[in-house]
Design brief:
34 helices, Serine Threonine Protein Phosphatase 5, Tetratricopeptide repeat, 5 domains, three-stranded antiparallel sheet
């Protein structure tokens, strides 16, 4: 009997084993979410281009979906090339942190460049996102490995299984390895928590790509997919462990390219996937798929059932994000629709978080591209950007709003806050130069520097590494330079280059310190040449100009002429370069090209007294003394400061001409006529012939600039009035509204509270304008999301002057955000009834 049972028991045992094995193969994998990033082409051309990183990402995303690693296509988020911005990475990491629960699996895959600016700094390095700068990574754009470390630790603390796969040591087209790529790989190889890591190569190696793998792939990525598809299951037990995929990659990749050896970090006995036991590897179809084959999550439909208009608001929000209409106009920007959507009681916490991180991504990316450009520009070019870009002063507010949305406890709050302070410093610096170094602008620079110092002192041990930000030292260097503290400026500029050795601006500043502080023109040449070597093409003429100044001072006029000819060819509207080209030609006694260069400068800026003097000096030195006289006389009339070099030299030369020649000077009225006709000043002067400020004209222009939304120009004109002692109530009102327009809300609050105190004291002019001040105060509170105080101030603005209808529009906006749509419409109707004009978007 027992013997007869043995075959049956054996059969049942084998059947159970087969069923178990089959079930093992088809068992549902844990809920898995994947963030897949591949960047072949970067926004900045200085970052070496790759060929197949985006294809590697697409192929891996397709593999995860095709082989059942991820059941729902919405759980594979694929970012390639220009989708892979730093803001979008922050948004996607927030999705992983929010959605992942204990027992879930998260896969993070990155193919692109990694870099670290110096091997001696305490930073771990960066993954370069699409909008990374080529250097000075702390300026933003690059993704800090410290933040990646924080994310992985937070996921692991939730008992989420994390797999990190990086191919961040790639060799770019014609450029080889980025300087710190090996250091990034070395830091990635460290265990952060309980994660598993698969890295494409050793720290001292480059990761290769080419057309002979999968029709154009990275060799690591190609064999990774092959191995996980089943080829790595060497013992045929249906399991692929970490050590098995590591061994497979070592064997295949090293045979394919020899000088590349992938490796793994973490629990090497951990099972990564199950495949069919003992069979041939499953067909991997290991080629890249179009990015559209994998769904990347967009915004969900928040609270559509509770409010039929929510879908319309969501679409308007997404449209505003796409068009970079982030903070203005007030009722048709991303901020407005974000506030409307998040005010809905029916909006879930999850949907609100999605909206928040979409907005944060747009705010940070929206300022990053601009900041990358600005951080390569010297003061002269920054002034050009300032005049051309009406949003120049608004960009720091983008980062400020991002900080508000994230909150002080978020791991990126201090990083973004420091970036905001850096940007504010840059803006204030430009305003300082544009105001001819006015006392008020200097005061604001001092205040801003103090705020920066206080922030850095309060960072705490966890964020001490932010003190190694080269922007901080560069700001300190510029601040000292502007105050004539050249030694301190030089020390800080040198520290900035230690931290960011590929950043041109600090080298340029070192040269200026040596030239104008120490008078050591010879020593200045080396850092100035380094700056020219590093700077991008668009900014190069301005740096070449500074180098030409050093060459001139070293009596190398031929070298200066060669450089300045390059500068004027690249930037034909650079008047100062034409003028200095003429000066150098005068020293080499090449008068004909010198006259032509001076004339170019005068054609561009006929009202510049220095250029008038230089043309006079050119004619005088060439022997045409009579022709030089009108230029010297014009210089004297245009330049009121007698201590200026060209003023004093013009006077000395004219005195000599009168004493030693028969050539007569022009009557003063003829010189004045020449200024108004031949000189033909392009800009309308705000001063009369006696040098008095035309206050009414200035007020008119300031109001016009404000109404057109050009807050930068309006602020500049208003400060001209204040510097002249014109601190009347209306000027202060417009200045406060400019602060509101630039989201400098604390400054606006302080100013309007001051004016209301003056009104309460019945100071002349202030009491009449009290409704205006209440309206300005209400605007500031509204933009700060303090709707109760905003409503109170707005009601006072209409109570005290019923014909001031702007308050009704603001009240309509307040009630709208409070969900009181009937009352909102009532205020809007009142606004129209009293003469207000609605915009097309006011029916949203």
């Amino acid at each position: 009997m027992l013997k007869s049972l043995l075959p049956l028991l054996l059969f049942l045992s084998i059947a159970c084993m087969l069923r178990a094995q089959d079930a093992f193969f088809t068992t549902e994998s844990p809920p898995t979410r994947a963030l897949i990033v591949g960047i072949s082409k970067y926004q900045d051309p200085k970052i070496p281009k790759l060929n197949y990183a985006h294809r590697d990402a697409e192929a891996f995303a397709k593999f995860l979906s095709d082989h059942g690693w991820v059941k729902n296509p919405k759980d594979v988020h694929l970012l390639v090339n220009d989708q892979a911005t730093s803001g979008n990475l922050v948004k996607e990491f927030s999705w992983l942190l929010k959605e992942s629960k204990a027992g879930d699996r998260v896969i993070i895959y990155f193919a692109g460049h990694g870099d670290k600016e110096t091997l001696t700094s305490s930073g771990l390095g960066y993954l370069l996102t699409y909008n990374s700068p080529p250097n000075n990574f702390m300026a933003g754009g690059a993704f800090n490995l410290r933040d990646l470390q924080t994310i992985i630790k937070d996921l692991s603390a939730k008992e989420v299984h994390v797999i990190l796969i990086t191919d961040a040591c790639k060799s770019g087209e014609g450029a080889g390895e980025l300087p710190g790529a090996s250091a990034v790989t070395a830091n990635l190889s460290q265990q952060y928590s309980k994660e598993v890591k698969l890295l494409s190569c050793q720290p001292n190696e480059l990761s290769k790509e080419g057309p002979n793998w999968g029709g154009g792939r990275g060799v690591f990525s190609f064999y990774l997919v092959e191995g996980l598809s089943g080829a790595a299951d060497k013992n045929g037990n249906g399991e692929i462990t970490v050590v098995e995929i590591e061994n497979y990659l070592e064997e295949q990749v090293s045979q394919a390219v020899r000088s590349q050896l992938p490796f793994a970090v973490g629990d090497k006995n951990q099972v990564l996937t199950y495949v069919k036991a003992g069979g041939a590897p499953a067909p991997s179809n290991n080629t890249a798929a179009p990015a559209g084959n994998v769904t990347t999550r967009g915004l969900e439909q928040p609270a559509a059932a509770a409010n039929p208009e929510a879908d319309e608001w969501k679409k308007a929000f997404e449209k505003a994000l796409k068009e970079q209409q982030l903070l203005e106009p007030m009722r048709d920007c991303a901020n407005w629709y974000y506030r409307k959507l998040t005010a809905l009681e029916s909006l879930s916490a999850s949907d609100k978080e999605d909206l928040t991180y979409s907005f944060v991504a747009a705010l940070t990316d929206g300022s990053q591209e601009v900041y990358n450009t600005y951080m390569q520009a010297d003061s002269a070019q920054l002034a050009t950007y300032f005049k051309k870009d009406p949003k120049f002063s608004l960009y720091p507010a983008y980062l400020g709003r991002a900080c508000e949305l994230l909150g002080e406890d978020h791991y990126l709050y201090k990083t973004f806050k420091l970036r905001q302070l850096n940007f504010e410093s840059l803006v204030e610096r430009v305003k300082y130069y544009e105001s001819n170094k006015s006392a008020k602008a200097q005061e604001k620079l001092v205040t801003q520097q103090k705020e920066m110092d206080e922030f850095l002192n309060d960072l705490g041990e966890e964020y001490e590494y932010l003190q190694e930000n080269p922007n901080v030292y560069y700001d300190k260097a510029l601040f000292a330079y502007n105050n004539g503290q050249y030694e301190e400026a030089l020390t800080n500029a040198q520290k900035a280059t230690e931290l960011s050795p590929q950043w041109a601006l600090p080298y340029n500043l070192q040269g200026l310190c040596l030239m104008y502080g120490n008078g050591d023109y010879e020593a200045a040449e080396a850092p100035l040449r380094k700056a020219v070597e590093l700077v991008e093409a668009e900014q190069k003429p301005y740096f070449q100009f500074d180098l030409a100044q050093a060459l001139y001072s070293n009596n190398d006029h031929e070298g200066a002429i060669e450089l300045l000819n390059e500068v004027t060819q690249a930037q034909p509207d650079f008047a100062h370069a034409w003028n200095w080209l003429g000066i150098n030609y005068r020293y080499t006694k090449e008068y004909d090209p010198g006259k032509a260069a001076c004339q170019h400068a005068l054609d561009l800026e006929p009202g510049n007294p220095q250029y008038q003097y230089e043309m006079g000096a050119m004619l005088y030195d060439s022997g045409d003394v009579e022709a030089s006289i009108p230029y010297f006389q014009t210089c004297l009339l245009l330049e009121s400061q007698e201590n200026m070099y060209w003023h004093s030299n013009s006077k000395i030369t004219l005195d000599w001409i009168q004493q030693n020649t028969q050539f007569p000077l022009l009557p003063e009225e003829e010189v004045r006529a020449r200024i108004s006709s031949e000189v033909n000043l392009e800009e309308e002067s705000f001063y009369d012939d006696a040098g008095n400020l035309n206050v009414e004209l200035l007020k008119e222009k300031a109001e016009k600039s404000f109404n057109e939304g050009d807050y930068q120009q309006a602020e500049e004109l208003l400060y001209m009035l204040l510097d002249d002692g014109q601190s009347d109530p209306l000027t202060l009102f417009y200045l406060g509204m400019v602060f509101n327009g630039q989201y400098r809300l604390e400054e606006a609050l302080d100013l309007f509270q001051f004016t209301l105190e003056m009104a309460e004291a019945e100071e002349e002019g202030y009491d009449i304008l009290e409704p205006f001040f209440q309206f300005g105060l209400a605007n500031a509170y509204f933009l700060m999301d303090d709707l109760d105080n905003a409503e109170a101030a707005a009601l006072k603005s209409i109570d005290e002057a019923n014909d001031f209808f702007e308050g009704y529009y603001l009240l309509s906006s307040i009630y709208d955000l409070q969900g009181d749509y009937e009352r909102s419409q009532e205020m809007l109707d009142k606004y129209v009834e009293m003469g207000g004009v609605l915009e097309e978007f006011d029916d949203h």
